[in-house]
Backbone:
């Protein structure tokens, strides 16, 4: 079992998008970076053909288009970390450097992270805070869903069995917005998050918040935004507000007790990390 | 069976493999390059680290078929005959290994990182090794070895580098 690896099925390697969509339409599991797929199938053989989309070059690029930044689904975390992007992407790039380890960042992709839909996926809170959407393509056509519509539950998404996630689209944010990412794990590196928080903040010249978006991961089946806290923070000074207000707006979180932390600890940590993420957006101005 | 053609340590190698064959087993069993170890099989421990197109990856998290047409470098390519690579030499001199199981992966991760940053700080090295676990917890001397290697390599001619 160990020596034979994960699969006992067909391996398909489409050379371009058209071939990839045909194969996906016929049914199969998509292999992108493989950093989640292989570990999940040690001792649990796969039953469907494996479609390795790694050869589809047009899915690799990160492009600045007039409407949005377009991250090809196969953009690797190393690519995200190394690409020159505006400051509102600082949180996403910081998260990219926290995904697994260097080796995992050299293989794992942004599209794979979203399709795997782990509650503790490092890429999800920053992308939620950036109001990202996903582009889903099949032989029949293309549709775009908001990321929060795409993620439907614990390891569940709205991706149809005939579709490929082909790109992550991030609309242009407020000019000069700052962003940050804070992850708490049980050690510094190579760790699954206990709690993580992503923040995007725009402020006026006198330091008042004009636009703020906060997302918390690993505290519910799907990472989520904190709309009531965001509303409460607008017009406050980023460097001077009562941090006690944060805890009053975490009611939508449903953290669990598990081997990494208790639910109560996660609530406490979420509150602290939200404060730190906001402070980081202020101090990094 | 799937035909794969991979450049391994500068040599073109071709074989028919079962599609499910992971790169690490292709290296170890098809090609007999047993220097690359398998530790966890779940993309965690880093002992199977090799370079694919010059970048470090975990070869237990990649199919041999995915390496088709690409360039793979393993620990076997590091020494030239009896002359150890400066990173291997530094591990030897600084007692950078205990049981030795993680060492090939450590050396390959270090080789990849020193290409990127030839003059790292201690903190840089520790961060670069985040994906490589040493069960003997010999990290002090591993980090010392890599810093030592960085020093000796920064004066070395290009051809002796990874």
Residues:
């Amino acid at each position: 079992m160990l020596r034979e690896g994960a699969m006992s099925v067909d391996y398909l390697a489409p050379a371009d998008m058209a071939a990839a969509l045909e194969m996906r339409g016929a049914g199969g599991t998509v292999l992108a970076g493989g950093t989640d797929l292989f570990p999940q199938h040690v001792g649990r053989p796969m039953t469907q053909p494996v479609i390795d989309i790694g050869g589809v070059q047009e899915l690799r690029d990160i492009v600045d288009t007039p409407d949005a930044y377009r991250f090809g689904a196969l953009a690797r975390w190393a690519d995200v970390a190394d690409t020159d992007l505006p400051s509102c992407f600082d949180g996403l790039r910081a998260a990219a450097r926290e995904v697994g380890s260097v080796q995992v960042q050299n293989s794992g992709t942004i599209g794979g992270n979203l399709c795997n839909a782990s509650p503790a996926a490092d890429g999800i809170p920053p992308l939620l805070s950036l109001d990202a959407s996903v582009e889903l393509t099949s032989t029949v056509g293309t549709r775009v869903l908001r990321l929060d519509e795409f993620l439907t539950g614990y390891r569940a998404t709205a991706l149809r069995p005939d579709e490929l996630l082909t790109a992550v689209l991030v609309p242009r944010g407020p000019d000069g917005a700052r962003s940050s990412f804070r992850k708490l794990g049980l050690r510094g590196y190579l760790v699954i998050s206990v709690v993580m928080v992503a923040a995007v903040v725009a402020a006026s010249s006198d330091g008042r918040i004009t636009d703020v978006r906060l997302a918390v991961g690993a505290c519910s089946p799907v990472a989520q935004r904190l709309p009531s806290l965001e509303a409460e923070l607008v017009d406050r000074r980023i460097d001077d507000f009562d941090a006690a207000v944060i805890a009053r707006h975490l009611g939508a979180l449903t953290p669990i007790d598990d081997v990494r932390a208790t639910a109560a600890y996660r609530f406490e940590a979420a509150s602290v990390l939200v404060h730190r993420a906001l402070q980081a957006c202020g101090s990094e101005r | 069976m799937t035909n794969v053609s991979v450049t391994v340590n500068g040599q073109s190698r071709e074989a028919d493999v079962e599609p499910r064959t992971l790169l690490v087993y292709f290296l170890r069993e098809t090609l007999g390059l047993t220097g690359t170890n398998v530790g966890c099989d779940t993309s965690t421990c880093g002992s199977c680290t090799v370079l694919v197109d010059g970048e470090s990856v975990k070869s237990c998290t990649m199919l041999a078929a995915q390496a088709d047409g690409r360039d793979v470098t393993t620990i076997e390519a590091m020494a030239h005959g009896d002359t150890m690579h400066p990173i291997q030499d530094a591990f030897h001199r600084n007692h950078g290994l205990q049981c030795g199981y993680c060492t090939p992966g450590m050396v390959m991760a270090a080789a990849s990182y020193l290409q990127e940053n030839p003059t790292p700080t201690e903190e840089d090295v520790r961060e670069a090794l985040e994906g490589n676990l040493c069960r003997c917890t010999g990290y002090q001397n591993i980090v010392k070895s890599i810093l030592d290697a960085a020093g000796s390599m920064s004066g070395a001619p290009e051809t002796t580098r990874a």
Observations:
- The longest helix of chain B spans residues 139-154.
- The radius of gyration of chain B is 15 Å.
- Confidence is low (pLDDT under 50) at residues 158-162 of chain B.
- Residues 100 and 134 of chain B are 9 Å apart (CA to CA).
